[in-house]
Every structure is written in structure tokens, then in C-alpha cells.
Specification:
Helix content is 70%, strand content 0%. By secondary structure, the chain is mainly alpha-helical.
Length: 76
């Protein structure tokens, strides 16, 4: 049987406050994680737009080591 507002167990006592507090903490954590994901995506977007991401990939490529022949094949 459901209780109505004003009756014992609904909206009163430490259990109700604890549930509200847990919901607030969960909301804050989800918001924090979402903002971190958005921030990471923005950082990746800016790095790719500025050319920094491309430069990093080129430096990491095996051809940046000026390898020829067998070392080039092994590094590829």
C-alpha cells in the first residue's frame, strides 16, 4: 500500500533526506564525467584544427626516423 504525503515514511525522516542526497551526488558525478568528455572532445577538435594532431602523427611515423630499407619495413 502506498503512503500519501504527510503520512509516516513519506517525506519525513533521515531516509528521505539520504535518498535526496544520494540523487544529488549521482547527478553531480554524471555531470562531472559528461563535462570531462566534452572537454576532451573539444581539446581533440582544437588539436586537429590547429594541425598539432597531424604534426604529432607525422613525428610518430616511422618515416620521421629517416629509416630506409629493412628498418623502414620493420618500423612500419
Amino acid at each position: 500500500m502506498r503512503t500519501k504525503a504527510g503520512e509516516a515514511g513519506y517525506g519525513h525522516g533521515p531516509l528521505w533526506r539520504e535518498q535526496l542526497a544520494q540523487g544529488t551526488v549521482e547527478y553531480a558525478l554524471v555531470l562531472l564525467v559528461f563535462m570531462a568528455i566534452v572537454g576532451a572532445l573539444v581539446a581533440i577538435w582544437r588539436a586537429s584544427a590547429d594541425g598539432a594532431l597531424t604534426a604529432t602523427v607525422e613525428r610518430a611515423a616511422s618515416h620521421a626516423l629517416d629509416a630506409t630499407g629493412i628498418p623502414d619495413i620493420i618500423l612500419y
